[in-house]
Amino acid sequence: MELRPLGRTGVKIAPLVFGGNVFGWTADEKTSFDLLSGFFDAGFNTVDTADVYSSWAPGNKGGESETLIGKWLKSGAVSRDKAIIVTKVGSDLGEGRKGLSQKWIVQAVEDSLKRLQTDYIDLYLSHWPDASVPYEETLAAHTKLKEQGKIRAIGGSNLDAAQLQASLDAAAKNGLARYDVLQPEYNLYDRAGFEGALADLCRAEEIGVITYFSLASGFLSGKYRTKDDTAGKARGSDVEKYLDDKGQRILAALDQVAAETGAKHAEIALAWLMAKPVVTAPIASATSLPQLESLVKAASLTLSADAIALLDKAGV
């Protein structure tokens, strides 16, 4: 399996990251364990989660995903040094537990470490910008955790170009650890937020990029063609916004590439992301072993220049 450098972190990851948002939501404990083991057995090495996953599910309060990953790690399915664990801090967990203050980060990381049953987190991300806290304070907290060995690398999620630049400036001015990784929303449909200034900054600063919503909440799997297709599905309401003219153009392009390659739509959408020089790896999740087997194939799918150009044009 090809391992790609994750920016300047010194960490190397396989070109696909498993999305842990499904653990404790649409994947129960046994299914989660089977998916994680299957993913790592296939040669991949990175799983993404967050302290808030999956608080949105009925009866959940957050931390469920980390807890399941921790149980899986503890089971010995893979040695800890072979697994790259990505988690995040900052989302609202209720009762004032949110944001990027030093006080909360120091507490939140301990909570995540306990749930994950590990001594360190490979990549710790600030989940959302927090305008109420200076970058200097947030980065100082992350720097301290790095010095303590509790985290190996840091990054930010959902930052625009101006915010990322401001964080880099604050790090340089104050001698603090900088965000070496960005996790943006980016896929064949949602491109405007990342392409351009933000992607250029990541390229210039050698920042690793791990994309989320890489399959546009499942829309790019090709299984949602009309509003009727979304009925009763866990992410159905999230998919409806993609059922416009642009979405139909993208589906048509995916149909054509699928006919030419024999690959499934999701595999093609992920391979398109993997082919982008600025992208280190996309995140994608599965809730069954057949879905996982399809995702795994994306890493060995090489799209032709014509196929990439077709897909590029469809999403404009």
UniProtKB/TrEMBL annotation:
GO terms for molecular function: oxidoreductase activity. This is Alcohol dehydrogenase. Keywords: Oxidoreductase. GO terms for cellular component: cytosol. It comes from Metarhizobium album. Residues 15-314 form the NADP-dependent oxidoreductase domain. It comes from the Bacteria. Pfam families: Aldo_ket_red (PF00248). Gene3D superfamilies: NADP-dependent oxidoreductase domain (3.20.20.100). InterPro entries: AKR_Detox_Biosynth (IPR050523), NAD(P)_OxRdtase_dom_sf (IPR036812), NADP_OxRdtase_dom (IPR023210).
